[in-house]
Design a protein that fits this description.
With about 130 residues, the chain is of the alpha+beta class. The chain folds into two domains: about 70 residues; about 60 residues, no CATH class. About 35% of the residues lie in helices and about 20% in strands. The strands form two sheets. The chain has a three-stranded antiparallel β-sheet with strand order 1-3-2. The protein has a two-stranded antiparallel ribbon with strand order 4-5. The protein is flat and about 50 Å long.
Length: about 130
């Protein structure tokens, strides 16, 4: 059976959520490099992340499921749709790692000179339409 990588993750939890969804739809899949990233998250960049592999024959169905997930609007804890404060769009990147601001710039400089993983970033929503972070 010929397998291909459908998506790459930096977080084992997100990888398992999509894996469970695909398996519930009848698509066999497995995670590659999950254990090494779970043991030491800094190895994520060395191994290329956690790879979700599926059979080549199921690519069309899996991509349709991914589109359905991406098109579903994000909801907050009160079940209200999260929208961009600038343009009102609901097309958002979730858990976008942002280093904007003085702390982010300082962190990037220190990380560069010390050759380490960035020590400061924050997870934000980022609008796919206007690029605003919030």
């Amino acid at each position: 059976m010929d397998f291909i990588t459908l998506k790459v993750f930096d977080n084992p939890i997100e990888a398992h959520l999509l894996k469970s969804k695909l398996e519930s739809e009848g698509i066999p899949c497995f995670l590659q490099d999950e254990n090494i990233v779970a043991l030491n998250p800094l190895y994520n960049y060395a191994v290329g992340g956690i790879k979700l592999n599926i059979p080549r024959a199921d690519v069309a169905l899996a991509q349709q499921i991914l589109r359905e997930i991406d098109d579903h609007p994000n909801l907050d804890e009160k079940e209200a749709i999260i929208a961009c404060p600038q343009c009102g769009s609901t097309h958002l990147y979730t858990n976008f790692k942002s280093m904007k601001g003085a702390k982010g710039i300082l962190s990037a400089i220190i990380s560069f000179f010390m050759a380490v993983f960035p020590i400061y970033y924050k997870n934000v929503y980022k609008c796919k339409d206007c690029g605003a972070e919030f």
